[in-house]
Amino acid sequence: MTRRGGVSRRRFLGRSAVAIGGWATAGVAPRVAFTAATETLRVGVIGCGSRGTEAADNCVAAAPGVQITALADAFVDRLKGLKEKYKVPDQRCFVGLDAWRQLLALSDVDMVILATPPGFRPMHFAAAVEAGKHIFTEKPVAVCAAGVRDMLEAAKRSEEKKLCVAAGTQRRHDPRYVETMKRIHDGAIGDLVSAQCYWNQGGLWVKPREPKMTDVEWQLRNWLYFVWLSGDHIVEQHVHNIDVINWAFRALPDQVHSLGGRQFRTGPEFGNIYDHFGTEFFYPGDVRTISMCRQIQGTTGNVSERVVGTKGVSDCAGTIAGEEPWKYEGPTPNPYVEEHRHWIEAIRGGPYLNEARQVTESTMCAIMARESAYSQQQMKREWFMQRCELDLRPRPDLKMTDPLPVTPVAVPGKYQLPGMVKEPQGRRG
Questions:
Q1: Rounded to an integer, what is the distance from CA 280 to the centroid of its chain?
Q2: pLDDT by 10s per residue, the chain, length 429
Q3: What CATH number did the domain enclosing 240 receive?
Q4: Shared domain check, 184 and 68
Q5: What's the pTM?
Q6: Has residue 429 been placed in a domain?
Q7: Total domains present in the chain
Q8: What residue numbers bound the domain in which 147 lies?
């Protein structure tokens, strides 16, 4: 079969796990001297909203000898559920925009769950690495180019310290996906020639602004709708599907070209994000893939991935059709628990696990797609990483009472991506 522009699996070496090597001698020594299930692992949760609460429950359910011993959140009401459930004492519950610093200063916390709005993730992750904590970080891990660069530096540092890092990309711990990817990488569907991925759904929650809410509190309590906090839904949510396609190709896209808009969620309560995106990713060998995401009530739902090869097609999640048809029939444990189980096993001396770079790279792809849609410019990954000046990182001294006007919604044709000159990447046909 003749193909044009397809990516051969023989052209790419799989990204190997980080070499274990010797312990880094600089900085804080990693707390990894846990070899038995009888040894207690103490967990601190930074960000105790719904996702942080669920992650804490998943972590405790994943293995024996795991205790939630410290909590931190910007708001006291967010602490209540976990505080009562796990009987965390008052002196180990921290409230405010600097609560994370107080939790990380606790020497007896071995592991931390980072589940605040993603805009804070690079700052929190870097501090957790320097504190010598093993880390579970929710996805995404940045919302801008500057944050991605911060995360890559901190990811490297975590590898040097041999800290165990798990990311909230639970599909990578789902046996259906894992077994399917093994077959794809072994050539079950041939050379990959295209792919599609989707996260299309209805609307999400909104918390009305109350009279006494400051700008910062209102935006934090509605973090999904502000780019500096969530990265927009293509970054906050669709990163899952983009990560699966990167995994299938064992590569990152060279270029990206997107469109998008804000057609249905137009009120001020929806901040400054879009409600739909469509993206073309260009993988090595000029293999082009399509990505689509939408949050519009009353529309057709679709959360899935699909890869096409010269010998077949797969949904990446348990089925292969074509010359070598196959269907997964093994166990189906909860992947949200499995990601914590694998993390804990690594901390207790099992195979080393560090997903920091992987989740940062997929986050970067999603941010590129967003910025391409905002600016209506096609761009190269090399340009984005080396020259893009976009910086949405929150100030380290941000206060709840600070005025914080909402940045206007990006208008294609008018929005200027910092660092971009006209067509910096050149055009491809």
A1: 20
A2: 233 333 333 333 233 333 222 222 233 334 444 545 568 999 999 999 999 999 999 999 999 999 999 999 999 999 999 999 999 999 999 999 999 999 999 999 999 999 999 999 999 999 999 999 999 999 999 999 999 999 999 999 999 999 999 999 999 999 999 999 999 999 999 999 999 999 999 999 999 999 999 999 999 999 999 999 999 999 999 999 999 999 999 999 999 999 999 999 999 999 999 999 999 999 999 999 999 999 999 999 999 999 999 999 999 999 999 999 999 999 999 999 999 999 999 999 999 999 999 999 999 999 999 999 999 999 999 999 999 999 999 999 999 999 999 999 999 989 988 877 654 444 333
A3: 3.30.360.10
A4: no
A5: 0.90
A6: no
A7: 2
A8: 28-171+350-355
Residues 158 and 179 in one domain: no
DSSP-derived 3-state class of residue 258: strand
Say whether both 37 and 167 belong to one domain: yes
Answer yes or no: is 54 within a domain.
Answer: yes
Exposed, middle or buried by CB within 10 Å (0-12, 13-18, 19+), for 412?
Answer: middle
Residues 163, 224, single domain; the answer is no
Does 295 reside within a domain? yes
Confirm whether 320 is domain-assigned: yes
Q: Which two tokens stand for residue 133?
A: 């904590």
